[in-house]
Design a protein that fits this description.
The protein is mainly α. It contains five helices and no strands. It has two domains: 57 residues, Orthogonal Bundle (434 Repressor (Amino-terminal Domain)), CATH 1.10.260; 29 residues, no CATH class. It is elongated and about 45 Å long. The two termini are 21 Å apart.
Length: 117
């Protein structure tokens, strides 16, 4: 399921919901991602100054992937396109597919939709 993120608070809500849906304690999830529980707590609370590299590790550990929705006219001119295999034939990003993260126990349960407060 794709969920657009516009704020650090929305990202934190999504991370918290996925972690709880997976049945992971905060300290266990943090340890598996190689970050401290205080850092994970800050992310889940929407701290705007959290380090992106560490956030990406947490997201990866929880099986959450990030995709950029780059406008077509900009994407065609990016140098990064030349580094993406088959980029010329796939000008748009493929729909997200479920990813199995072997580092955590996966459960197939619905993640609640978030509403802006």
């Amino acid at each position: 399921m794709q969920y657009p993120i516009h704020t650090t608070a929305e990202l934190g809500e999504a991370v918290l919901a996925v972690r709880k849906a997976l049945g992971l304690r905060q300290d266990d999830a943090a340890s598996a991602a190689g970050v401290g529980h205080v850092f994970l707590r800050d992310v889940e609370r929407g701290k705007p100054t959290a380090q992106i590299g560490r956030i990406l590790r947490v997201l990866d550990e929880l099986g959450i992937k990030i995709y950029l929705d780059i406008p077509e006219e900009v994407f065609q001119n990016l140098d990064v396109v030349h580094k993406i295999p088959n980029a010329a034939s796939t000008r748009s990003i493929a729909p997200m597919t479920p990813v199995v993260n072997k580092n955590v126990h996966q459960k197939l349960i619905p993640i609640p939709k978030f509403t802006k407060g």
